[in-house]
Amino acid sequence: MKIRNMEFLISAVKPDQYPEEPLPEIAFAGRSNVGKSSMINMLLNRRNFARTSSTPGKTQTINFYEMDHAFRFVDLPGYGYAKVSKVQHESWGGIMNTYLKGRENLLEIIQLVDIRHEPTEQDQEMYKWILDAGFSGIIIATKSDKLKSSQIQKQISIIRKKLNAGGSIIIPISASNRVNKYKVWDLFNEIFEENGYDIKLERQDGTK
Question: Cβ atoms within 10 A of the Cβ of 204, count?
Answer without folding.
Answer: 12
